[in-house]
Design brief:
The complex is a heterotrimer. Chain B is of the alpha+beta class. Helices cover about 35% and strands about 15% of the residues of chain B. The longest helix of chain B is centred in the N-terminal third of the chain and has 14 residues. The model of chain B has no long low-confidence stretch (mean pLDDT about 95). Chain C is α+β, with helices and mostly antiparallel strands. Among the domains of chain C are: about 160 residues, Flavocytochrome C3, Chain A, domain 1 (Alpha-Beta Complex), CATH 3.90.700; about 120 residues, Fumarate reductase/succinate dehydrogenase flavoprotein-like, C-terminal domain (Methane Monooxygenase Hydroxylase, Chain G, domain 1, Up-down Bundle), CATH 1.20.58. Chain C is about 40% helix and about 15% strand. Chain C is built from 17 helices and 20 strands. Chain C has a five-stranded parallel sheet, sandwiched between helices. Chain C has a five-stranded antiparallel sheet with strand order 12-16-15-13-14. Classes of the chains: A alpha+beta, B alpha+beta, C alpha+beta. Chains in contact: A-B, B-C. Chains B and C meet through α1, α2 and α3 of B and α2, α4, α5, α11 and α12 of C.
């Protein structure tokens, strides 16, 4: 009884919606903190952060939890919506729902679906590049050595490696005679010994900036991202406090505070997210 | 009343011969409706007119006509129990409408409330939910302890009463975009959960009532809050939260 | 026909206990072999069905509404009496018994009423155990209020929705039994006839209101708990569907109908507004705890108010006639319902009515004094010993809102007037019927095996019912009387076996029902059912209403007989028999109301005295108070059906004996 109650019942579905939703809110906060470095920090720090996020085992667990939450939230949401649509086979000829409920509360499924589309696009644009792109650039800096500009890869142990001396692969190194070549997308290998001598940072910063500054598609991307954040804001406007209600947390004293915080969260978080592409596209030099 | 006047209205009403047939919206003109009349008195007037024209009158559910039996329903101009709040259709008065208005009248729409005829729907799903656990299992012998033997905190007793004030009309289901019955079930669960008498079987009650609710084909709550606004008795969303809490407690027990 | 009330011997306080101890029982293993039908699911029906189901009988329960929870008991507002003496104001079983007999103007049976008072305490215990959320005080104990006709606080309540909470309690008990399979529930079914086999009630014919199917249901006993017949007046506080059909069909099958003329006109209802009005709305009697009833002292003020030239708040204190306080200083605004109603009628008939409707019928129920009193108290309680008038008024209104908020809101929704600012307008309306099917001490009618409970029977309220005692009676009958007395009757039926429904008796009853339905559907009339119902109501209200006289009653009898002919000749019922057909349902009910109406007038005519709600204008004292005739009319008037012509009904008298209460003139001065 109790077991199936926790999986199949209408209420259980709501608990899972709420729990995954609230976890995703936490994720949003963390993700935002990281992304804000695009504005308030430099490329190196951003890429260092990106590396940390993709390699730390604790973060790894959290990220799997996030993937799971997104999937579960979406699947559960579709299931709920399917049942809800089925619950009213014939609709009203005249309906006036705005008299008793907010726009966002009535359109969570639509908003959620749009967000899902956004998440997939977003992951293709950045996450997939970060994880799988063979041609992912590595972080480098340009220094002036005796009046000559020179590009140096930054290594994770704080060292540098001249870009001109690093081959893209062992084969290339053999041809050009470069001392060093790149293996496993980020590792610097000594050509003779074929041992790892250092590691570079994937330059996510560069990818990001290029994406939003792209001459052809940068503006469209920026606008679409801002729209996506509007959608997210509406989804959160209802979702945040609704999750507490679903979990049974409704209290005459605390609920107004939760609702207030939820509203603030729903406005501030997407707003800050939206500022980033705008900043990059229009203001970043 | 001296302020009452007469208005002429157009009605668009759902007509359906029986559960099996397909229905449609039909248009009727009705003149000289006193604004002091209740909405159902206006429908009486229409039916009188239809009977005099040898036409079949509109079937609608109603009984006490003072807002307590929960029998009347009707989705009027896109809202359960019409444009006023805190009332049932029988308490809705024609002074809420203007001369020349077109008024849409439809039955409650829910898979769990199939239409029987015209504006009449079958709400026995609510009875079945109640039968699944909406009670305290005491015998009716009267040989119980003295009524004052267990003092009950006034705040809890009042909250319990507020939940128990539900009249089972189904406006919550009708107005909910998901056709969810959680305000109804939440109110019943809350009434008992707040009283010492009801706590004994709280676990089984909430599990059984929710199971029955799901089997009846009601939708899920998405916390839009529409039910609370349209509920003629102002049953609070707090009751749904309490049910969620009770169910969570019961599920992990 | 012989009326045997079967009142047991012994001292009044021991009768029920001794009687119960000697009733026959049915062993638990035999109960599943026995079927019981319960018609109606109000307080009496639901509690009886739940109790009998729980005992193990096979119960079939019927209601015409879409759910048993909708029965009109749900609309009772004020409260339920019980002799608990929680408030320490000297209450006791005897006092409740005494007040009820006196309130009924000495026309109720002592033994029945005492039993009612005895079990009243158990009702509260039972309801609390079921989770009925009665009002409580800050100590967590049950709160009480006072009601008309008593000087103690013995009324338990749940805001203005006591009936609702009690009915939902009984409904929950019934639901439990339905869930357990011990009660089979038939929603949207209407009983249309009783089936007798060998003189005993053995089943009913019911119509499935959705499909129109005519169904046969057999049982070893039939319980009628179908409520009162106030809708004979068309306009009443009853629900639209409330009807007398079950009781009337039983009457036509041989059950005596007692005291049909005893009707309660409730003093505090919202006045009539117009010709399309379908029903009247009650404002709880509990409002009389806080409101003062008045009309202007000067006729010209009343006229100016009706013309809309003056507002009630503009009438100076000394120009107001608080007529209840003036006439009945001891009880003031809390006199019994019949007294309060008549006093209102007296003032309006004299030309002081304030409502601008066809009849000028309306008086004020004013809360301004209470606002001032309670506002002051509330200010003091807050430590403010020097409150400004504004503070007092604000606090007083707040107090009213806490106590009566829902009623005030309801009033405002209906009338569009704010009762916090201007006095409520009220007028008496038909509310409850004390008369009903005659039953003995076992609640059994003159048909063996046919029991009648709650408002449908006549037993406990005499000629006038006190507030908060209808709920008490319904639950007492269902929870604590019928389970014993029905079992006693059924003890002889354990070997009977299932009652077959394919017998001549069922054929005959079904034919009666089908003939009647076919008649109406095939009648080539021109007028709607409501047309005749309104006409009937008009006759009843004007001639068999609050004031009755010989001439009017005789006219009423003739007019109703003529109306009956016209009805059968000219009624038009659309639709068919095999579908949901509300017009057909109404036609079948109104047919019975017309016959009953005639009997009511006959009963009122034969009762040449004034008592309780029955006021014969010929029998009043110099001050307009009722003049009872105990020598000639201290009896229950029970009518025996004697064929289609109602005027041929035969009156039987059950003499009332008062052994434990000294009969006296009722005095509330």
């Amino acid at each position: 009884m109790a077991k199936s109650a926790l999986l199949k019942s209408s209420l259980a579905k709501k608990y899972w919606m709420a729990l995954t939703g609230l976890f995703l809110c936490l994720f949003l906060a963390g993700h935002l903190a990281g992304n804000l470095q695009l504005i308030f920090s430099d490329a190196l720090h951003f890429n260092q952060y990106a590396l940390f996020m993709t390699s730390n085992p604790a973060v790894k667990i959290l990220s799997y939890l996030t993937y799971f939450s997104i999937l579960f939230h979406a699947v559960d949401g579709f299931l709920l919506t399917y049942q809800n649509v089925k619950a009213r086979p014939i609709g009203y000829a005249k309906n006036n729902p705005s008299a008793n409920s907010s726009f966002s509360s009535r359109n969570m499924a639509v908003l959620g679906t749009l967000i899902l589309v956004f998440i997939v696009t977003h992951m293709v644009n950045f996450w997939a590049v970060m994880h799988f792109d063979k041609n992912m650039p590595l972080q480098s800096i340009t220094v002036e050595v005796m009046g000559q500009k020179q590009e140096l890869y930054v290594t994770t142990n704080g060292g540098y490696m001249p870009v001109s001396q690093v081959a893209k692969s062992y084969e290339e190194a053999m041809k050009t005679g470069a001392q060093t070549y790149i293996e496993h997308r980020t590792d610097f290998y000594n050509t003779q010994a074929r041992v790892k001598i250092g590691e570079g940072y994937k330059d996510l910063h560069k990818i990001t900036v290029a994406f939003f500054k792209d001459a052809k598609l940068g503006l469209i991307a920026t606008v679409l991202y801002v729209i996506a954040m509007f959608v997210l804001a509406f989804h959160l406007l209802h979702g945040f406090s609704s999750a507490f209600q679903s979990l049974g947390l409704n209290h005459p004293k605390y609920t107004p505070a939760i609702k207030g915080f939820g509203k603030a969260f729903a406005i501030v978080v997407p707003l800050l997210f939206a500022i980033i592409p705008v900043y990059i596209h229009f203001f970043l030099k | 009343m001296s302020t009452a006047k007469n208005i002429n209205i157009t009605l668009k009403i759902w007509r359906q011969k029986n559960a099996k047939s397909k229905g449609s919206m039909e248009t009727y003109k009705l003149d000289n409706v006193s604004t002091a009349s209740s909405f159902l008195e206006m429908l009486d007037q229409l039916n009188e007119q239809l009977v005099n024209e040898r036409k079949e009158p509109v079937a609608f559910d109603h009984d006490c006509r003072e807002g307590i039996c929960g029998m009347c329903s009707l989705y009027i101009n896109g809202r359960a129990h019409g444009p006023d709040t805190g009332i049932t259709t029988c308490q809705l008065h024609m002074r809420m409408f203007n001369d020349g208005d077109t008024i849409y009248v439809e039955p409650w729409r829910s898979r769990a409330f199939p239409v029987i005829k015209d504006l009449v729907v079958d709400r026995s799903a609510f009875d079945r939910i109640q039968q699944a656990g909406g009670f305290v299992s005491v015998n009716t012998s009267g040989n119980t302890i003295d009524a004052n033997a267990t003092p009950i905190n006034k705040h809890d007793a009042d909250k319990s009463f507020e939940a128990a004030a539900c009249i089972g009309c189904g406006a919550c289901v009708a107005t909910c975009k998901n056709g969810s019955a959680m305000l109804f079930v939440g109110a019943k669960v809350s009434q008992y959960a707040l009283l010492p008498q009801g706590k004994v079987e709280a676990t089984q009650r909430v599990l059984n009532m929710v199971r029955q609710m799901d089997e009846e084909g009601f939708g899920n709550c998405t916390n839009t809050g529409a039910c609370e606004i349209e509920c003629p008795k102002g049953i609070s969303l707090e009751n749904i939260a309490r049910m969620n809490r009770e169910y969570l407690k019961a599920s992990i027990k | 026909m012989k009326l045997d009330s079967k009142i047991p011997e012994g001292h009044i306080s021991q009768k029920w206990t001794d009687y119960k101890n000697h009733l026959k029982l049915v062993a638990p293993n035999n109960r599943p072999k026995i079927d019981i039908i319960v018609v109606g699911t109000g307080l009496a029906g639901a509690s009886a069905a739940a109790s009998l189901g729980e005992m193990g009988y096979n119960v079939k329960a019927f209601c015409f509404q879409d759910s048993p929870r909708r029965a009109h008991s749900i609309a009772a507002q004020g409260g339920i009496n019980a002799a608990k003496n929680y408030q320490n104001d000297g209450d006791s079983i005897y006092r409740l018994f005494y007040d009820t007999i006196k309130g009924g103007d000495y026309r109720a049976r002592e033994a029945n009423v005492h039993r009612l008072a005895e079990v009243s305490g158990n009702i509260i215990d039972q309801c609390v155990a079921q989770g009925v959320p009665f009002a409580r005080d800050y100590g967590g104990l049950l709160d009480n209020r006072s009601f008309g006709g008593t000087q103690v606080q013995r009324t338990f309540y749940a805001a203005g929705q006591t009936g609702q909470q009690l009915l939902l309690g009984a409904y929950s008990a019934l639901s439990r039994q339905i869930g357990l399979g011990r009660v089979q529930m038939f929603n949207r079914h209407e009983m249309l006839d009783l089936v007798k086999v060998d003189g005993k009630a053995r089943g009913i014919i019911a119509r499935n209101l959705v499909t129109g199917e005519i169904e046969r249901h057999s049982a070893h006993a039939v319980i009628i708990a179908s409520g009162g017949y106030g809708n004979v007046y068309f306009l009443s506080t009853n629900a639209m569907g409330s009807n007398v059909t079950a009781g009337w069909k039983v009457h036509k099958q041989g059950a005596a109908f007692a005291n049909p003329c005893f009707v309660q006109i409730h003093p505090t209802c919202i006045p009539v507004h117009g010709t399309n009005q379908s029903k009247l709305t009650l404002m709880s009697e509990s409002l009389r705890n806080s409101g003062r009833i008045w009309v202007p002292k000067k006729k010209e003020d009343a006229e100016a108010i009706r013309a809309g030239k003056l507002k009630p708040t503009q009438i100076a204190e000394e120009d107001r006639d608080y007529y209840l306080e003036r006439r009945y200083p001891a009880f003031g605004n809390l006199v019994p319902r019949d007294v309060a109603s008549r006093a209102a009628k007296e003032r309006c008939d004299a030309g002081f009515g304030i409502e601008a409707n066809d009849t000028n019928e309306g008086v004020y129920l004013d809360f301004s004094t209470e606002i001032q009193n309670k506002g002051k108290q509330a200010a003091y309680a807050k430590g403010n010993h020097n409150p400004t008038p504004e503070e007092i008024t604000a606090l007083g209104k707040q107090w009213l809102e806490e106590k009566y908020g829902n009623l005030f809101t309801m009033y405002q929704k209906i009338t569009d007037e704010n009762p916090y600012e201007t006095p409520m307008k009220i007028y008496p309306a038909v509310h409850y019927t004390m008369g009903g099917v005659w039953v003995d001490y076992n609640l059994q009618s003159t048909i063996p095996g046919c029991f009648v409970a709650g408002e449908a029977n006549f037993s406990d309220h005499g000629a006038n019912r006190l507030g908060a005692s209808a709920l008490m009676q319904g639950l007492a009958d269902g929870y604590f009387v019928l389970p014993y007395t029905v079992s006693d009757y059924l003890a002889d039926d354990i070997r009977t076996g299932k009652i077959p429904t394919n017998t001549a008796e069922f054929d005959e009853a079904e034919k009666r029902v089908k003939d009647s339905i076919n008649f109406f559907l095939n009648n080539s009339g021109t007028k709607s059912v409501d047309h005749f119902h309104k006409k009937l109501g008009h006759i009843m209200w004007n001639k068999v209403g609050m004031g009755r006289n010989e001439q009017g009653l005789k006219e009423a009898i003739a007019e109703i007989a003529a109306l009956k002919d016209e009805f059968y000749k000219d009624v038009f019922v659309p639709g068919s028999a095999d579908e949901l057909n509300p017009e057909l349902e109404k036609a079948l009910r109104v047919a019975d109301f017309i016959e009953l109406g005639q009997l009511m007038a006959m009963d009122a005519l034969q009762r040449k005295e004034s008592c309780g709600g029955h006021f014969r204008e010929e029998y009043q004292d110099a001050e307009g108070e009722t003049l009872r005739d105990d020598e000639n009319f201290k009896f229950v008037g029970a009518w025996e059906y004697n064929g289609e012509d109602i005027s041929k009904e035969i009156l039987h008298k059950e003499e009332l004996k008062y052994e434990f209460i000294k009969i006296a003139a009722r005095n509330y001065k």
